[in-house]
Amino acid sequence: MSLVIIKKINFELPGKARSCEMWSFWKLVFFLKTNVRWKIVLSVLVYCSFGVKKIYAQTTQNINVLFVNEVGNDLAQVAVDVALNYIRKNPSLGLSVEIMSIEGNRTDSKGMLEALCAKISEAIQTNRPPHVIFDTTLTGVSSETVKSVSASLGIPTVSASYGQEGDLRQWRDLSPIKSNYLLQVMPPTDMIPQSIRKIVTYMNITNAAILYDESFVMDHKYKALLQNMPTRHVITSIGNDKDRAEQIEKLRNLDINNFFILGSFNSIKKVLESAKREFFERNFAWHAITQYQGELSSNIDNATIMLLRPISDSRSKDRLGVIRTTYNMKQEPQITTVFYFDLALRTFLAIKNILQVGAWPPNMKYMVCEDYDGTNSPNHTIDLRSAFIEVTEPTTYAPFQFPTGKSKFNGYAYPKFDMDISAVTIRGGASVSTKNLGKWSTDDKLTVYNDEDMGSLTADTVYRVYTVVQEPFIIRDPSAPKGFKGYCIDLLDEIAKIVNFDYEIKEVEDGKFGNMNEKGVWNGIVRKLIDKQADIGLGSMSVMAERETVIDFTVPYYDLVGISIMMQLPSTPSSLFKFLTVLETNVWLCILAAYFFTSFLMWIFDRYSPYSYQNNREKYKNDDEKREFNIKECLWFCMTSLTPQGGGEAPKNLSGRLVAATWWLFGFIIIASYTANLAAFLTVSRLDTPVESLDDLSKQYKILYAPLNGSSAMTYFQRMADIEARFYEIWKEMSLNDSLTPVERSKLAVWDYPVSDKYTKMWQAMQEAGLPNSLDEAVERIRNSTSASGFAFLGDATDIRYKVLTNCDLQMVGEEFSRKPYAIAVQQGSPLKDQFNNAILMLLNKRQLEKLKEQWWKNDDIQSKCEKPDDQSDGISIQNIGGVFIVIFVGIGMACITLIFEFWYYKYRKNVKIIDVAEATDENLGQKKNLRISNLKQEFGNMGQIKDDPGTKTQSLRTRTQTLDINNFKSRF
Known about the structure:
Layout: H1 2-12, H2 20-31, H3 34-59, E1 61-70, H4 74-89, E2 95-104, H5 109-125, E3 132-135, H6 141-153, E4 157-159, E5 182-184, H7 188-191, H8 194-203, E6 207-212, E7 232-237, H9 244-253, E8 258-262, H10 265-274, E9 285-289, E10 302-311, H11 317-326, H12 334-356, H13 384-390, E11 400-401, E12 414-415, E13 418-427, E14 430-441, E15 445-448, H14 451-455, E16 462-467, E17 475-476, E18 484-485, H15 487-499, E19 502-507, H16 524-530, E20 536-538, E21 551-553, E22 558-568, H17 585-608, H18 631-641, H19 654-686, H20 694-699, E23 704-707, H21 712-735, H22 742-746, H23 758-769, H24 775-784, E24 791-796, H25 797-806, E25 810-822, E26 825-827, H26 832-845, H27 848-857, H28 861-864, H29 878-881, H30 883-908, H31 922-939, H32 954-972
Parallel strand pairs: 1-2, 1-3, 3-4, 4-5, 6-7, 6-8, 8-9, 9-10, 16-19, 16-20, 23-24
Antiparallel strand pairs: 10-13, 11-12, 13-14, 14-15, 17-18, 20-26, 21-26, 22-24, 22-25
Helix pairs in contact: 1-3, 2-3, 4-12, 5-6, 12-13, 15-26, 17-18, 17-19, 21-23
């Protein structure tokens, strides 16, 4: 019975070695008798033990592996050792691996080649040729040497070198046969940098600095990482402790405000601590990317960093824990160590499967390096690619992603894992909060949990603007949002609305727009743009040919602007009695003396001439002109004769009329002369302008003049003087050239120099006068100048026009010359040029720039307060002719005073005296009576109360006369 069972077991074992023990046990337990049960069990166990060992010995595959590593890649060595230990502890894998190791230097291709050839030759001679080369070299010439040897000798190879499609030059153009057994799987650190490309695309980052340490290899990514993307970027290794701060400063000067740090937590910490405090403001963004596990910390005050770190696959966590604890694989970064472990184990199992199924070529031909002549590379039919993909052994950290079908393998195979994205806030040297933002997977998928949170870590587009204060383009204003206001600030704000950016503005230290010295060194805003310390140069900056060789200008935002002249406005002193200054004082005194003399003479002639009215009353008693020329009437007659009203009744005597005619002729000449001289005097005072053009300025020596030091106006005059000097040298050389014939030389013989030296003299005069360093200094010099030594400033017409607009004592003289446009300056090659061009053209189409000009050059409150200057087309101002109104008011006042005096004098000092008629003698009664009646008639003419009755009694006449006088006085007042 036991023999039958043993034979049956022996028959069943070869088919199912693992079921031998279970089958034997159940047969013995349920079918054998009790008395022989233990003997049979013992026999079966001994036989099964021997049979299983025999079966395992028959199914275990021995493979030879040539392990090629490079110096410094200790993680790969540890991973291979753990893989061998794992195979030994898991005999169920049916695998036995013999390792032949080579370690070379990354830069020593010759040493690597010699080591490879020697090891391969030794293995072939000892009948242990390598089934596969497991290559963990990272990059460099030694790695390329391994690829070259494996491709040339036809040895199956699995490589973990860095590089995407086409990066492995020796495997770039593999034949379809070789591509089946020369395989490359990209390591995690080759995939992690790809997250930068996705983040840059998602956050629309236009500039980036990528810093990496020795844990990453970026040699092959300098061109490919951000290829075909509108992002200016720099990829560089992290500097040492001494140069790191300077390195970050230089990157910032390149207009970079987005920083990506690839490295360990220690490297990230050092970089963050090397950056200045202002580099963590809102216009900067920091992204830390690592393959390590841990917490981010740094000795910085306040910063929020975007942190990316890998997370293991949830299905592999248990296996990862077992491998780390059981096999003591705790080296960091664990993702790289586990990658090498999984890749090595998969490589070994793939070769084992090929051998087990009999797919390995029988009598495979191996050749040594010495036999290779460049054309005899063997082509083996080994499908390592399919066997590698079909391995079912689970991965320890993340599954592998392989291309399907006939797609290319190299550059497309990689471990598929996720990178956790979080925002880490650091305060006081430690992380105080961590907010999960999303994740990125190596298949280039970005998952964002909250767009707003992700967007908050974007660096705001803040451009650095440097300017020169020059009204009204740039005006300091502490109350303004940016500390400045003006035409250019309004323009930049309008552009910012279109292009969508923010800016910070500073005044350039030397206050210059930019000039080049004799050594070719620039200063001012141009220097800032050249050194990448400024993004935008703003202000009334002229477009000049030499500036365009080192920087770029946008399209002009302001029309052509020339150079003009600014001088002090002539102040003509106004006087209310200016009309009196037409004639000198002695002339006025002579006229006054002639007036009194003529009046007195006329009174004398009328008093003593027998033909005057007062001496010949009977003759002129029926004449309407009855004027007695007493001294008062003479003064009145001479005065009114000087007016259009005329003198009135002329004297009756011929001598008096001759005096009057002579006075009329004198008055006519005096009035005509005064009128003509008054008009000429007022006109000449308004036409007194010493300089009206640049030529006038150059021909005189009384008024000093100069442009602003370092301005475009100074450059213009300096260069014009240099051109004249060169022309003179050329003319002199032509005139003194001995090679010319007498005829040709005679054509150059002239008395005068044929080219003007106006600018040479002007430049010399400017240097002697001294160039002001600022516009305010120039204005001060103008105001302090006197009529004996004036000062004129030559500068941009826009600046002068605004100064004249806002200062009542300045004027703009002459026409503009040397016209140039104003534009915004940017760095050479900057993308801002095209963006600003489009924005300025849009503003021009909307007529927005015209509105800004209207606002800053015409609607100014200061100018409305200035007195309007006299113009030739205007009339005489009230300031110069107002004295005549004062004369009227004085005359009216004197008349009022005279009226009061007359009232007082008539009432209290000139009472009517009545003579008693009864007391008169008879012989004089008739004569006195007639005279009395005549006077009363003249005074009370139409009252009809005095009769020419000679019989009127004296008492009656006396009574009525007194009564009429009193009544008449009462009726008038």
